[in-house]
Inverse folding.
């Protein structure tokens, strides 16, 4: 695509932006000249005075300051419809402007950058996830192939940068020469391999086996290996290849059977029996292998998800697995993973080195009580129903005496159907400085942070500095929390919100008077 073509596209986008802006101004004029709108503004002024609200710079959007004695505006259905149309227009306008900004970067004289700077940029790009859409008939070109086709200079740099070719990501059989090219151009460097079969039916077990024929001669330089599939046959194919293999540089191993119909699971009786001395991190989804024995020893990260009937751990197996990794720092247990008999008590399991713990499913309360983690710094609770969350809260001892998690600083709640958090819940976890709430009743937390719920003038979680909310957020409630904490000299330092706020710069700017605000567009819930 030539520069003239890019300029033409930018010109067209500018024309569309101008049309959107003109339409927006027409809508705003219809709103502000409507008699019902004017009467409502006059009512608010007479009831509360001008000090309780202010208008945005464009003069139409009325924002009430959060207050217990200020009513919200009550506009007619027609006015509300027009306001929603303005909001949608602004969202489209924001997207158009973002495209203009992105395309404008192509006009920057990037070819003047020194070679060493380009090498650093290429290496960073080569490590980024390949997130383009994959279909049966289309697949995005891998990043190294893209940069190598831009110019002669870029091609020379790409071909002679071995680290650029060490991220071997396979989501489609094409491009057919991709794997051999990576193996050749990586020049003996450690390689990271990802085989993701979830987006296409073309990566069948025989096709994956053929790719493993190319990869296995280089198993001595594997650094990471990840398989994601919904076909048990592919997992068994990989299992046969890895049964007696030796991978001396392998640090991370992921074997994930997910998204399949029914509760499918895989048992691998042998894996990496030739040795994997450097292995420190594993993730298994619906898969089991001999626990507590080589190579699953001396691990620092254990991630187990959805272990069904044949793969689910018994208490003794779980205890032995932990004992085989005395320096574990991260433990992730999602879905079903361990069978605990109802009504039976189990000895506690001490994990003094653990720093990160994630629990989900029906055993959250029992598992959190079972695991002794005095050095835990980050706790994530996922997919809890209200009963399980209530039982978890009730099980927590008072944090003023040390509590269950004396060193905890970060709490994350993901898809948790919660009862209203109580003051006792806050006191049980008094050291929290980072809170993340994803689809988990944000309003209930924000209400508890208000000053009317303070005890002896002390707000809930006085150490709280970072708040991440990926959920429907009531702006007025959020603004009140931010403003009150700042007034009481317990300010938030960073606020992370999801995309619905991104097209309304005015809302963000009012918050930025008190706290740094970051906007995120999506969240990887399968991290």
């Amino acid at each position: 695509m030539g520069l003239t073509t890019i300029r033409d596209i930018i010109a067209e986008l500018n024309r569309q932006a101008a049309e959107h802006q003109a339409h927006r101004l027409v809508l705003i004029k219809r709103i502000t000249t409507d008699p019902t709108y004017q009467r409502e503004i006059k009512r608010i002024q007479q009831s509360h005075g001008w000090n309780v609200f202010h208008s945005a710079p464009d003069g139409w959007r009325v924002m009430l300051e959060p207050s217990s004695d200020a009513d919200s505006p009550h506009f007619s259905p027609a006015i509300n419809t027009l306001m929603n149309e303005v909001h949608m227009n602004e969202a489209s306008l924001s997207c158009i402007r973002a495209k203009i900004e992105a395309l404008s970067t192509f006009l920057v004289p990037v070819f003047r950058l020194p070679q060493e700077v380009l090498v650093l940029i290429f290496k960073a790009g080569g490590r980024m996830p390949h997130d383009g859409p994959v279909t049966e008939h289309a697949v995005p070109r891998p990043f190294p192939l893209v940069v190598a086709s831009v110019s002669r200079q870029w091609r020379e740099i790409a071909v002679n940068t071995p680290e650029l070719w060490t991220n071997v990501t396979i989501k489609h059989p094409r491009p057919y020469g991709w794997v051999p090219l990576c193996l050749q151009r990586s020049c003996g460097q450690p390689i990271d391999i990802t085989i993701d079969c979830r987006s296409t039916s073309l990566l069948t077990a025989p096709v994956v086996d053929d790719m493993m024929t190319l990869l296995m001669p280089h198993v001595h330089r594997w650094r990471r290996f990840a398989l994601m599939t919904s076909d048990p046959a592919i997992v068994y194919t990989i299992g046969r290849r890895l049964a007696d293999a030796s991978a001396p540089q392998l640090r991370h191993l992921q074997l994930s059977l997910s998204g399949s119909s029914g509760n499918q699971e895989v048992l691998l009786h042998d894996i990496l029996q030739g040795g994997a001395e450097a292995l420190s991190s594993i993730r298994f989804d619906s898969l089991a292998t001999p626990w507590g024995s080589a190579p699953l020893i001396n691990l620092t990260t254990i991630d187990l998800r959805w272990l069904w009937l044949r793969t689910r751990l018994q208490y003794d197996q779980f205890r032995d697995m932990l004992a085989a990794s005395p320096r574990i720092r991260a433990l992730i247990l999602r879905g079903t993973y361990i069978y605990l008999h109802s009504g039976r008590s189990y000895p506690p399991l001490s994990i003094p080195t653990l720093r990160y713990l994630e629990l989900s499913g029906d055993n959250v309360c029992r598992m959190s009580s079972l695991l002794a983690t005095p050095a835990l710094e980050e706790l994530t609770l996922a997919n809890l129903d209200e009963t399980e969350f209530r039982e978890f809260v009730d099980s927590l001892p008072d944090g003023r005496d040390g509590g269950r998690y004396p060193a905890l600083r970060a709490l994350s709640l993901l898809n948790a159907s919660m009862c209203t958090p109580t003051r006792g819940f806050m006191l049980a976890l008094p050291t929290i400085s980072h809170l993340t709430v994803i689809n988990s009743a944000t309003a209930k937390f924000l209400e508890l942070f208000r000053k009317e719920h303070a005890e002896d003038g002390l707000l809930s979680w006085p150490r709280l500095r970072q708040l991440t909310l990926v959920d429907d957020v009531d702006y007025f409630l959020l603004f009140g929390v931010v403003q009150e904490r700042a007034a009481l000299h317990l300010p938030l330092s960073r606020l992370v919100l999801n995309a619905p706020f991104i097209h309304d710069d005015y809302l963000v700017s009012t918050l930025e008077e008190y706290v740094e605000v970051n906007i995120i567009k999506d969240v990887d819930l399968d991290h």
About this structure: The longest helix spans residues 3-32. Confidence is low (pLDDT under 50) at residues 62-70.
